Amino acid sequence: MADTEMNQAGGEEGESGIDLKVLSAEGDEVDDYAASALDEIFGSINDALGSQISSAFDGGDDDDGGPDVDVLMLLFVLIISKIGISFSVGIDWSMFENAFGWLNQLSVLAPKVPNVGEKTIKTVTFVLLLLIQPVCLGRMNWLSREHRGESAAPLPRYLNWLPRVVRTQLKPCSSMFTPLLIILWVVFLVMFIASMATKAHMVAGFSCLFFGFPAAYLSFINFSRQKMWEYVYLRCADVVRYRQYENLCLKEGSFVLFVFVASYTFVVNFFIALMATWSSQTGTQNAFLVIGFILYSVLPLWYLYKVITDTDADRTFRIFREQLVSSFVDQHMYMKLVLLVESALFSLLVLLGSDSSTQLVGGFVISVFFFAVATISRPYEDDMENYSDIIARLTVCLTLMLGLIIQGSGSSSGCGVVLIIISCITTIWFLYTMDIKEILLARFFLLLQLYAQAKASRYTKAVIRKLPGDRVRRIADSPIEFHVLSSVQRIHFATIRKADFFSGKRIKELADLEITWLDLQQMGFTCASLRELGFSNDELMAVDAQLDDMGDRSDIQTLFEDTYNERKSAQGEKDRSTLLALHQLGVLYHDMGEHVRAMDTLTKCYKARDLLFGADDEDTLVSQQYIGEYYVFLSRAGDGVELLQKVYDLRRQAEEESEATLDAMRALGKGLQAVGMTGEALKLFEKRYVIIVRQTVANKMRRDHPCTLPCRLDYATALAECGCFTSIPDLKLHSVMNRQKTVHGADHPTTLKLMDTYAELLTKIGQNLKSSQLHYECVSEKAATFGPNHTGTIKSKFALAGCLIEMGRNMEVERLGLDACLSDQDTRLGETHPSTISSMVKMAALYNSMTKYKEALDMFQTCYDIRCKTLGKDHELTLGVANNIAATLDSLERRKDAQEMYESTLELMQARLGKSHLNTTGVMLNLGLLYQRIGNLPKARSVYNETLEICTEAYGEKHPRTLMAYEFLGCLHLIEDRFQDAKDVFEKSLALKKGIFDDTHPLVLSTMENLASAMQRLGQKAESIVIYERLCALRASSIGPNHINTIKGRVAMAIVMAELGRVQEALNIVIAAVHELTRVLGPAAPEVHEYVSIVGYIYALCGQFDEGIRFTNMALAGTIQVYGENHFLVKGLLTRKAWMLQNSGKPAEAAKIQAIIAAMPADGSQKAAPAASAGAAGGDAAGADGGSGETLSPLQQQLQEEQSAIMNSEVQIATKLSSIMQMIQSGMLQNALPAIQDYLQNDFSRVVSVENILATVNIAALILNAQQPQLSLQIMEAVYPPIKMNFSSKKELLLPSMDLLGKAYAYSGNVPAAIPILEEYMKLAEEERSVTKAPNPTLDQTQDLMVKLYGSLRQFDKAVGIYTSQFEYYKNTQGEASEAAITAINNRAMYWFALQNFDKSRADHKEVIRLLTILQGADHPETIQSLDGFKALYAGNGMQY
Q: Contact 1171/883 with Cβ under 8 angstroms?
């Protein structure tokens, strides 16, 4: 059924901007820092570069930051490829016959470095090229281990000494020297001095290579980390210091990855050059050459492929993966590997081409092929990169074509010259498109920043007091030096050296420090103390208040109020500065959550400005726009849109594309979205997006510059609101978001806010998995950047919780610790703080979604009381919470209270907001839904029709609220059994929605589901299934096959299948749904009980009423536990149970159930559409108590009687099973057969206890041991399905049953049926054994059986897999030289032999001999006998052992 919902928070507060707040402990006092010659140079650079440096490090919109490391790497590879092409065609290659010919030019060093021969240079260079990639590979993995720290896998025993000589964690270090580093330096110095003294230059070269270079590199890394920690310790708060230090350390990995990839082309070209000397080398040399070429050309590609495909790697390798795939669209993420292969092909062509003509033709074919691939696939996310790549490739094609023409004319010398010139032109063009200037500037600025950071760590309070005045002024005027100062340091400079610090060119007032009032408050400053230091009220008011995470705000409030009163007294109410103070005071009230005072103050200011300065005055427009946005925030979007439209019109008349006009355009678009005018909002956001991108390009920046990301997200959200999901990928949000992270950092406040918005957008368009991953990343970064209990972090946690609930992953929500966060906010900020109230509303909404209705009601009630006290009973935000309280009361079956709350809320809303307001119509629909629940269908119909009429007249037929009213009316027709009317309504609604939204829009899919339900009830079951299949396919493609809504559609389709006779297919679907929901939501979830009841219903449809009753009883017990016994779902299950009893020939029992139904209260007897607010379909979890001294209800009496009957039945069945087991154990199986058949036919369907089911399994095992596999199979085929359905979490029951069923199939001759069951058993049993570490003889027996079964099917490779698993287990538990491990590897060797993989069988046989030697000695008779047997085995097949 369709849902409708007012904003769950009742227009609750949105997230305000997050500013980084930094704290610092005082450092030790240090000596004065004297200015050096470097300081003078540094100051001159600052003066010369000025605003360029400022824009580069202040993170302004003009800073592109240059391409990331990924683009640098691509640039490098492509340039090498282009130059390689030019030099590989039209040139005489005879000069390269010598493999090291290109090194001959280095012989010019000989006069300067005596006795350093060519051989030394060649050898050292050769080894360096071979080592560069393995070293990079090892460093990347070691960096990942350092990052994982204690959570990393333990080192092997032979490396336990390693942590004592080298750092294994990214912990800050106080000294740059480690034992390993000292050893490297000592060995290097000793070897180098000794070798140079003895003129052993080869040894000297290798000492530099193996000891000197690593020592220098590690020294640089350790020194850098030491300085990074000094900088981070000073700049960041305690809670985030380590994460910031970690982020800086991980940048090393990006550099190492770049070297690893960039070196690929060099190494491959080197091996190809060596292959040119093939004919002059020996066979051994050529063999090593081939092996080396394969290793160094294939393994790096395989490693990069593993990095790209590993989406679950740790954070280090996630950074590497992002570098490799961020440039490309998802379906072409492997393009990085294609680029490397392409460059290798061009180099290989040089070797294979016999002459320049062949090389030219081959190069032309390859270049045309890859040009076609690039043109068709357009692999890059960014259009500019696609165009650059295509132009570069086209130029290469034309170059090679020109070379062919020149070659044909016989002018080979001119060919080389032209090719080189054109290649240079291509390279210059490519450099230009890649913004090489920004790359170089960014690297230069980075060096300056590192130097400034080293100096900034010295500025403690004591040092600041002693610094010369000109030095303080230079620090304030230096963009870089000021940038690296922490907030604490800036405040110290401003308060201790105020006169000098504010006398420069850049810093003029307190707001220029980029600090917040929270920073000042945490350092103990108040308004009074700052005034005493000489700061004016204007300066103090200009500082960002940062109220969302501040508890005591009275000091700031007093400041703003006093300032306004002082200006009013001194300059009068009509003065512009007085009205500015009044506007600022209203904004402060808004931030403090005092919305009544805020609106009154802002309105007063706006009217005065309009009267005094005119409607088109800038101050008037600012007030008008702020009030308009405030109205939208308060859910009075209609009033807000009217004001915002006037602002936009006036600003557009003044200047069409100014920043203020674009801001007004955005505000108006948000207002239009709030009133449901999504089409008009989309036009505005599209226009704004086009203008901003055009301005960005005009400012000589990339189209995908991060400054365009906010407008892209706004436009994408508008597209999603209109259901235009297919247009969203064109905005390349993923690429631009990665660029934002690259330029500004993933932990930058702006980046984090945009990540939140992007994640919410992904949820809207159904990409819940990506959304949850991004939410998790955002929560992690915010917790590390701002702290785990910061308001911004908590808001992101709530957003993540909502996404998880949307995906049905309720159990993960519990692990987020939201209750603890809310408690911390309550303690730290106070109960009435806006941030606390916002979190309480969100927490209550989550409780509702998780069916915790009592907790939700208590929290909603607390919010309602606070808002009644602070805002008034009729305020918009108060009325929003009142709606949610009514919906929760409805869920708790307190229908009368819910009706009173809805009616009073509706009356207040109509008086304050009007009948046509969206919130008013939302409450009307909720009230109609309540009437529907209590059985007052005429009243419900009247409310729905009135709402439909109001919405159609006010918003039009295609407005989402109008369509929602249609949906509710159609659902009411279904309940009234007016199926044709329902179908007509749903068809009309679907036609209207398809004209507005994409097919995958949730509103379209909801109507499709309702239409299929109506057609099913009309008897049009075949047509209904067609719609259900289409519905499931659309949901699976948009939100995933395991989303709870997709599963819901499949279950509804399964019911229709069962009604059409496709019972087994339907059962499989529903049983799979039960398993998936149990895994995700837990066994107590209401959805699990609902689908278990559907299993019972399907069994009943095919005449298996006993099974149907059993599953219905299970669902009934769970539903009563969740909702209580008077819930309408309980009544529905009882009605179904009575129907089953009647049809199974038990009319007396059916009559009892009917009497219980008749005695139930009428309230809630009608099943209706789901409630409007989240989770409103719930009920009272308490139900009737039935405690001591109370009379049991009829239902409780019935359940008690049934439970007693079940217990008696179980006792009787247990007695019968015990008797059967005794007869079988006494060898009287034939005598037991009648009792077994009677038990299976008459008693087994009534078994519910685990003990009796396990006894049945044991009987089957005894029968199988008695060599009666057919009878054992008959028992297990009856037992296993209910075990898998009901006891999948009980491994002690599931695993033996699975094993026994598979063996029964095997011994009955049905091997194909046995293998998949036994394979699943082995997988689960091995997982359990890896956890418990306990031996499992049954698993060993099953593995031996599976080897025989695989052997009978000639599947020897699978038998090898089993013995490999056995060997690894025994090696880890008993030791590699244990008898069990030796037996496993010996058996594996025999199967390798059967597969004719003689190399592996020989290796395993040799391993057997080695292990036998360890176990019992080389001269032991069994060792000798085994060795002789292996030799004979291979000799008999004409081979040597």
A: no
